[in-house]
Each structure stands twice: as C-alpha cells, then as structure tokens.
Amino acid sequence: MVSIQFKVIESLHFGGPGEFSPAARGPATHGRALTIPLPSTVLGLLANLCREDITSDGTLRKDYEIVRSKFGTDIFIRGPYLISENGRIYMTVDNLIIELSREDNPCSIYRYLIYTFAKMLDEDNDKIRELTRQLFSNKVRIVKFLGVGLRRDLKIADEEKGLLYLEEYVTYDIEETHKKVDVYISVDIVGIESIEKTPVREGPVRLGGEQRVTKMIVREDRPLVDLCRQLIEDDDYHLLIHITPTIIEAEKDMYITYEELSKQLFENNGKIICCIGKFGKDPLSIINLGFNEIKKARRPLKYVITPGSITIVKGLDKHMLYNICEKGIENKKIEDEIEYNRIGYNTVLIIPLSRLRDLARELTEKIMKIAEG
Question: What one-character-per-residue DSSP string does 100-122 give?
Fold first, then answer.
C-alpha cells in the first residue's frame, strides 16, 4: 500500500491542449493550463526518477516498463488527485475543487452530483440552491504571467523574433475548518505491499511544465483506493465519477451508443444507463495525452469521457466494483502501446445510487426515469 504525493510549494503549470503558436493566435500567444496534471505527466516524472542508466524514447509504454522494472512487479497507478495535509481527498472539475468523502458535507461530491443532475434537468428551486450553495467555496486559482520571448544564450529580449505570451499557472485554495491547508498532488500505487519496495525516495522534484518545484513524499497508504472500496455497497445502480480521463473508442463525430460503451468498459458485466458530463454538459471530448519530452512532440489525440462526468451503471457485481477501484476501468477494445488504466487513466470513484437518493430523492428519480425511459 503506497501513495506518492507531491507537496505544492509554488504555482504549477500543466500544459493544456493549446500550443504557444503565433500561427494560431497572432503576435501574442496564450499558454493555458490544466488544473491537475494528466496521468502521463506523473508517469513521465516517475520514469525519469527510476531510469538511471536506462534509455527511454519517451513513449508511455517505455516509461511504464521503466517504472515497473524498478518497482519489481506489475503496478496500477490511480489518480492523480488532490489530498490535504489532514488527509481529505479532492478532485478538480474545471476550476472547482470537490471533496471525495464517505459522508456528505457542503463541498462534497454528493452536492456536486445534485448540482449536475439539476443542470441536466434544468431544475432550479430553493432546496437545490440550499444544498449546493457552498459547493464553489474551494477553487483552483489561476495565476497568469506575462512574458516576452528571449534569446536563450544572452537571456535578453529577442527583438526580431520575441513574442509576448501569457502563461497560466495553477495553485489550490482549500480551506478546512476555516483555515487554509497545504495541498498535495497524489497518486496511489496498487501492487506494492510496503514502502521499502518503493524505488523512489523523498525530496524536491520538478513537476509539470516550466520545471516548477514540488516536494515528493512517499507514504504507506492508498487513500483514494481505500475510500473507493469503503463506499461499495450492494445496490442495483452505481454512479461512477470519472476522476481522470477515461479513454474510449468512438466515431469521428464522437458518437457512441450506451450499448457499445457498456461492451467497451464492462464487457457486458454491467449496463450503462446514462452518462452525464460535468455540470450537465456533453461527457465526451478529445484530448492529447501530454507531451513527449524526448521526441519534443505532443502525444496522440484520444476520445475520452471527461473528468467530472458521471456514468450510471446497472448490474455491476462486487468483484467487478472492487477490481475497478484498484485497477481502473479496463477497455480491452483499445489496442494501443499501453493499457491506459495501468498508468492512471480511467480512474473513477464509485458511489451507490442509494446514497444520493437519501439527499435528493425526487431529483434522482427524475434522472432514472429519463435514463431508462
């Protein structure tokens, strides 16, 4: 049971889908940031720490092989997600920070589910407003820096080619009991039994773009996996909250039936009733899987179910649910260089539908009628 955590010391940059390209944006460019690193970013960092004299071509497969060889066993990475100094677990949806917990509270995942269902149904009443009133109190803070292109040899402005650019960095404003707390970006490593078998050691490391510094800590626990297992109950219906992008196969127009999606993700062991995007929007999008630092090129584009989306599934047995908690959703239809669930993609939190019914029964029943109707 091991988790690797990166203490946020300064604002961080995790490159978004856009490029610093004057061809796309004109003489002033804008580098947008993701609110949390992609799983492939964390994998690349771990591979860099583990590889020593091993050469890498920067592909996800090679990076995973390097990490696996140093850990000495097959591993599954879950996350990344956020965790506070007090051990409370969070995920990000756009710039919103949502607590993942067993119990309900004003900023919890349960209030986010109610808010998303209400948005989908275009519901707005006093009860829903009261339940979701404090949901937006914890946010990712976007910090923007204005710069100019430099001559790297002299560290002065390049008068001929220098371009103005605006670059985004992120930091996390989380309050617990009316006090700001330290925040860590964390991944759980499934397959390692003790901290002694972990090849990486604590200390300062550079995470994300622009070589920003974090402090790496190795802990003998797996907070997200344990929370997910604790939430599993006997129920006909379960809500799968997508914490990291879930990679799927889809048509060019991003069309896919629930029947086909069920086959891809659960091999007919469960039936998808409904898939709702963050804040009630479309759940599907296209992303690239980060940047290959060795080849200096962006990774391939993939169709994904976006983080923050909610998939309602019927008929998953407990064995399957526990397996998803620890290993993510395995999509065997995708025959790529790597099984993406091994490196952190396809990470979900599983919540029995009955937990949400207790908070907002009328709203939940309306969603189920639409989904099954």
Answer: E-SS--TTBHHHHHHHHHHHHHT
In angstroms, the CA 278 to CA 302 distance is: 18
User: Residue 36's closest CA among 351, 350, 347?
Assistant: 347
pLDDT of residue 162: 60
CATH class belonging to 227-372:
alpha beta
Residue 23 confidence (pLDDT) = 44
Q: What is the pTM assigned to this prediction?
A: 0.91
Residue 239 burial by CB count (10 A; 0-12/13-18/19+): exposed, middle or buried? buried
DSSP one-letter code for 12: B
CA angle 166, 169, 173 (to 5 degrees): 140
Closest C-alpha among 148, 143, 140, 138 to residue 32: 143
CA distance 90 to 97: 6
Task: Give the pLDDT confidence of 30-64 residue by residue, as tens digits.
Answer: 567 899 999 999 999 999 898 777 777 889 999 99
Q: Where are the domains of the chain?
A: 2-94+138-221, 227-372
As a residue count, the chain comes to: 373
Please, which residues have CB within 8 angstroms of residue 240's CB and are 6 or more apart in sequence?
A: 310, 311, 312, 313, 324, 329, 348, 349, 350
Is it the case that residue 306 has pLDDT exceeding 70?
Answer: yes
Mean residue pLDDT across the chain: 88
CA-to-CA dists, residue 228 to 36, 191, 207, angstroms: 20, 16, 26
User: In the chain, which ranges are continuous DSSP H helix?
Assistant: 22-25, 39-50, 60-71, 109-121, 126-131, 223-231, 258-266, 318-327, 353-357, 361-372
